[in-house]
TrEMBL record:
Domain NmrA-like: residue ranges: 3-155
Top-level taxon of origin: Eukaryota
Name listed for the protein in its UniProt record: NmrA-like domain-containing protein
UniProt cross-references to Pfam families, sorted A to Z: NmrA (PF05368)
Keyword rRNA-binding belongs to the record: no
PANTHER family from the UniProt entry: NMRA-LIKE DOMAIN-CONTAINING PROTEIN-RELATED, NMRA-LIKE FAMILY PROTEIN
InterPro entries attached to this UniProt entry: NAD(P)-bd_dom_sf, NmrA-like, NmrA/Isoflavone_reductase-like
Keyword Transcription included in the entry's annotation: no
GO MF terms, alphabetically ordered: oxidoreductase activity
Organism from which the protein derives: Aspergillus brasiliensis
Entry keywords, A to Z: NADP, Oxidoreductase
Length: 263
């Protein structure tokens, strides 16, 4: 009998990477959930092993149809706190009601289990949903921690890489380590976990671990052109900057979240 893997937020890039990774496994049926199926690639809509359920993040009826009969649910939501918390709770409740054995939360982030409870963390939804899953009797929580996603690290959003000046900005000494994983590698880990019925709890993966200095060395060798490093200050300076931005507008995550502290 095919394994049914339900993926919420299928229009997202990471969700589609997971679906692509699952194609390597035989006897897998994918059920996607999203509010705008028309945004999905045509090739995905035509795939024989994929069914798509349309629904909003807070649609309890659609959520039940989505999770019914699934062997595992993977959440790939990325959005407002309401989507990340209330949207996931709707899915978790549906899994509990319909006896879905496992729920892979929309974590795919740094190891937040090592972050103090009172510290500022832009993805606090991860901690909330982990506690919520722990309160359930039937559905088991799965939390995949991949470190930073490589594509995000090099994106304009993250605020480190400036392609116009070929420079990488950082806080600290440059010797702090970063756990980084590409979308495709993180998706491959997630697909393997989804098919392993014994995989529950917190699971830690990483594609590589590098310091800013090591990233510069690799960049210089590959591109035969120097990567310019820009030191923005100490880790203490970073903490003060983030705290100040947070106090001025705690709901504007984009104003303080990109400058994350390396481990």
């Amino acid at each position: 009998m095919p394994t049914t893997i339900a993926i919420a937020g299928l229009t997202g890039k990471f969700a589609q990477c997971i679906a692509s990774s699952l194609e390597a496994y035989p006897d897998v049926f994918i059920r996607g959930y999203c509010r705008s199926p028309e945004k999905l690639p045509h090739s995905l809509l035509l795939a024989r092993n994929i069914e798509v359920i349309k629904g909003e993040f807070d649609d309890k009826v659609a959520a039940r149809s989505f999770v019914r009969g699934a062997d595992v649910v993977i959440c790939c939501y990325f959005g407002s706190p309401e989507v990340m918390v209330q949207g996931q709770k709707v899915l978790v409740d549906a899994c509990e009601e319909l006896n879905v054995p496992r729920y892979i939360a929309s974590d795919f982030a740094v190891d937040y289990t090592n972050i103090p409870a009172n510290a500022i963390f832009p993805k606090d939804s991860a901690r909330i949903i982990r506690e919520y899953l722990a309160s359930k009797k039937t559905v088991a929580g799965v939390h995949i921690l991949t470190g930073g996603l490589m594509e995000t690290f090099w994106s304009e959003f993250f605020g480190c890489w400036d392609r116009t000046t070929r420079s990488l900005s950082f806080w600290g000494t440059g010797e702090e380590t970063w756990d980084l994983t590409t979308y495709e590698t993180a998706a491959a880990y997630t697909a393997a976990v989804a098919l392993d019925k014994s995989a529950v709890g917190v699971l830690r993966f990483r594609g590589d671990r590098k310091t800013i200095i090591e990233i510069k060395d690799s960049f210089d060798k590959v591109y035969t052109a120097p990567l310019n490093l820009v030191n923005l200050g100490s880790i203490e300076d970073l903490n003060a900057t983030v705290l100040d931005s947070f106090r001025r507008n705690p709901r504007d995550v984009m104003s303080w979240a990109p400058n994350l502290k390396p481990s």
